[in-house]
Amino acid sequence: MQAENNKIGYYLERTTRLVKLNFHQAFKNAGFNITPEQWVILDILNSQNGLSQSDLAEQSFKDAPSISRIIDTLARKSFVERKPVKNDRRKFEIFLTEDGIKTVKALTPLVNKLRNQSWQGLSKEDYTKFLKIINKIFDNMSKE
Amino acid sequence: MQAENNKIGYYLERTTRLVKLNFHQAFKNAGFNITPEQWVILDILNSQNGLSQSDLAEQSFKDAPSISRIIDTLARKSFVERKPVKNDRRKFEIFLTEDGIKTVKALTPLVNKLRNQSWQGLSKEDYTKFLKIINKIFDNMSKE
DNA sequence: TAACAATAGTTGCATATGCAAATATACACT
DNA sequence: AGTGTATATTTGCATATGCAACTATTGTTA
């Protein structure tokens, strides 16, 4: 396809930004000082506690420095803690703290509500189609 | 729709990030020190030279501080210049410089190539559908 | 006209990202 | 064992964004 796919980047970018903004503000309104990026990490750890930073990097599709600094912030806020790994002293395993677990529990309904809101008026078919297309774009941009 | 729309935010975010990365690297490989965000502004100015910063903010869906700083960078690199407005001394009109114009001309084919690449294997119908859905998400997140 | 509100832009602070370079540790191979 | 390579994480630098606060100027209106 040519010439028609004019402003995909623009629509992608502004929508992503707005979605993140909504999540961030909802967290803030609920009394939680957490960014969407931090939420993603907490959410992953909630289903797989004790991942290493490089595991987290892979699962969140971020690079090592980004994860390193997000973990810094989450640790500073006492949502997670780094535990050294016995067999490999280069690594840390990252665990949710009590407070981290509570926070994920508290925010999960809010996140579901926002997800539903973002998808209002759209169908299951739309979802399938959208995922197919966006992941095709992702693949198209992944090759050299 | 419920419960199914699980990871839209994640797919949006990682795809947007990858698209921007591809554009940035392509610019760099072509010898241009320009970010995708800076490109968007140059591209808008190329079709409407002399917009004010608040016009640019509106058209690019960014806030005033973001535009202010992007213009700072573009001006420092001599791609644009701020011209004071006679009737309203609060305002600047932003103009592409010679170099800015040359740069847009040089990068346009590259941008088109990348747009085509991102849309490879997808149809005009996919495009319509995708735009409908992503803009619906945008609207859903725009209301209070 | 004086006071107040609105508009245009800038600046400071916190966060996130990409990249390159650095450190520390583990692994592999001769 | 010793050298070189790979892996895990951190740090520095540049850029972008959201938000709040600030300055300067313009508009409104009592």
From TrEMBL, chains A, B:
PROSITE patterns: HTH_MARR_1, HTH_MARR_2
Domain HTH marR-type: 5-139
Pfam families in the cross-refs: MarR
Entry keywords, A to Z: DNA-binding, Transcription, Transcription regulation
Keyword Transcription: yes
InterPro entries cross-referenced by the UniProt entry: HTH_MarR-typ, Tscrpt_reg_MarR-type_CS, WH-like_DNA-bd_sf, WH_DNA-bd_sf
UniProt entry tagged with the keyword DNA-binding: yes
Domain of life (superkingdom): Bacteria
GO MF term set: DNA binding; DNA-binding transcription factor activity
The protein, known as: Transcriptional regulator
